[in-house]
TrEMBL record:
SMART domains: NOSIC. One of its GO terms (molecular function) is snoRNA binding. It comes from Thecamonas trahens ATCC 50062. Residues 443-520 are annotated as: Disordered. This is Nucleolar protein 58. Residues 508-520 have a biased composition (Basic residues). Signal peptide: none annotated.
């Protein structure tokens, strides 16, 4: 009977076991009884060959090949050395039937995979430490743990250097710290303002204000306190002068102690915020270097946090990236059928801030398009350094300067790009006019035709003027009508006057007749 070889993969290396008693495999249900201890197990199988892995990377490549059902190079070399070149005709027992088919096809080794082989592998694993005499149990456990972690990262496509969850939590905490700092600082200013109200106008920074309160305490100590370590020298003398003529009220030591405790909180939170910002900057440069080069650390982190992860952000088109953060305005505009917003979170990028109000929409659209490409390079690429981000930023800066109306020399000086490189980005503003003198055969005719055309145009204009005259005539007719009406009215008035004169004459005649009669 031909004996069988059992291929067994471990975290420490590949092992080949030779089956000594084939009859045990026929009774699968009772096979575990033969592996109760190492001695009984060695009566069933014996170690034929073992090849340890040199490092975790080699172990991971071998394990991933077995998981994917592929014949890896280390396994192929191992089988070729210990089976093919050794001239063995034994049947190779494997757990994975797909892997057995590949081995048979590439190395011409007969393979078998059934339930009895699966049970035999379980039994070998139970007594593996005793069967592998050259490898210690501690080494096997450490290798197993390392391969398990590496294989888990491989299956999840996980990289410890690209954990965007840290960015999401950091930017959320940074925003909360800003709100908390603003609340605490305003409370401290209002509280200490009852004692020294003039100080709030002199010192604008919250950190400096709280540091001065902690150093000086009561305003009466302003003259004798050294404030050079916490305040600018140009503000120290005005502060001391204001403290001497301050209109604030006096406070007790207990009140001052509580104010100082609040100022300590502001100072400590401010220091932690600066440390958190440095941490966020380092994480963004490690996870999304190209996006950071384009829009900055804060805007890039807010874009990642808004979508949930860097992978989700890489799936978004440029038009969506442009209006991320302005969803309410977008839906309100669509509902009311008004103009949609031109930018969202990307509005706070430095490139958009440098643009004038009329160019903000254009530069935000171009920045979103370049950011979409940069995000995909960061999410799906293997490079940890910015590859396309700085080049995209130089291109956008040159385009922005061109839109703002700057010359090519200024663009080249500001961006560090030569005129030849910018030629593809921007076009020349010099327009070339057509030279009519180059048409040697038809030059005179063109000039004459030009004169004729100009004459025709003048004639047409004259005719247009003539066409405009009839309305004037109508207006004159209207005036004539008005004149005739006025003449008629004057005639009527003259007739009325003549009638009135005739009536007056008749009255005079009748009066004269009456007088004559009275005399008689």
């Amino acid at each position: 009977m031909v004996q069988s070889l059992v291929l067994f993969e471990t975290a420490a290396g590949f092992a080949l076991f030779k089956v000594l008693d084939e009859g045990k495999l026929s009774k699968v249900d009772d096979l575990y009884k033969s592996f109760k201890d190492v001695d009984t197990a060695k009566s069933v199988v014996s170690l034929h060959a073992f090849q340890p892995f040199q490092d975790i990377a080699l172990a991971l490549s071998a394990a991933t090949g077995i998981v994917d059902g592929e014949l890896s190079k280390p396994l192929k070399k191992f089988l070729k050395k210990n089976v093919v070149k050794a001239g063995l005709d034994d049947t190779l027992a494997v757990v994975d039937a797909k892997l057995g088919g590949i081995i048979k096809e590439s190395l011409s080794i007969p393979c078998v995979a059934d339930s009895s082989i699966f049970e035999l592998s379980r039994c070998i694993r139970s007594q593996l430490d005793g069967l592998l005499e050259d490898v210690s149990a501690k080494d096997v456990r450490s290798m197993r743990l390392g391969v398990a972690h590496s294989l888990g990262r491989y299956k999840l496509k996980f990289s410890p250097d690209k954990v965007d969850t840290m960015i999401i939590q950091a930017i959320a905490l940074l925003d909360e710290l800003d709100k908390e700092l603003n609340t605490y600082a305003m409370r401290a200013r209002e509280w200490y303002g009852w004692h020294f109200p003039e100080m709030s106008k002199l010192i604008a920074e919250h950190m400096e204000y709280c540091s001065v309160v902690l150093t000086m305490g009561n305003r009466a100590n302003a003259k004798d306190t050294d404030l050079t370590s916490v305040l600018d020298e140009s503000l120290i003398e005005p502060l001391r002068n204001a403290a001497q003529v301050s209109m604030g009220t006096e406070i007790s030591d207990h009140d001052l102690a509580n104010i100082k405790f609040l100022c300590e909180q502001v100072v400590s939170i401010t220091q932690y915020r600066s440390e958190l910002f440095e941490y966020l900057k380092n994480r963004m440069n490690a996870i999304a270097p190209n996006l950071t080069a384009l829009v900055g650390e804060l805007v890039g982190a807010r874009l990642i946090a808004h979508t949930g992860s860097l992978i989700n952000l890489s799936k978004q088109p440029a038009s969506t990236i442009q209006i991320l953060g302005a969803e309410k305005a977008l839906f309100r505009a669509l509902k009311t059928k008004h103009a949609t917003p031109k930018y969202g979170l990307i509005y706070h990028a430095s490139l958009v801030g440098q643009a004038s109000s009329k160019n903000k929409g254009k530069i935000s659209r171009m920045l979103a398009a370049k950011s979409a490409l940069a995000i995909r390079c960061d999410a799906l690429g293997d490079e940890d350094t910015p590859s396309v981000g700085p080049d995209y930023r130089v291109t956008l800066e040159a385009r922005l300067m061109q839109m703002e109306g700057r010359s090519m020399a200024e663009i080249a000086a500001a961006t560090g790009v030569s005129r030849s490189n910018n030629a593809a980005v921007s076009r020349s503003n010099n327009t070339v006019s057509y030279n009519a003198a180059t048409d040697s055969t038809l030059a005179d005719m063109d000039v004459e035709s030009g004169k004729d055309k100009s004459k025709k145009k003048r004639k047409l204009e004259d005719s247009d003027d003539d066409d405009d005259e009839p309305p004037r005539k109508k207006k004159d007719k209207g005036k004539d009508k008005d004149k005739s009406k006025s003449k008629d009215k004057s005639k009527d008035k003259s007739k009325d006057k003549s009638k009135d004169k005739g009536k007056d004459k008749d009255k005079k005649k009748s009066k004269s007749k009456d007088k004559k009669k009275s005399k008689k």
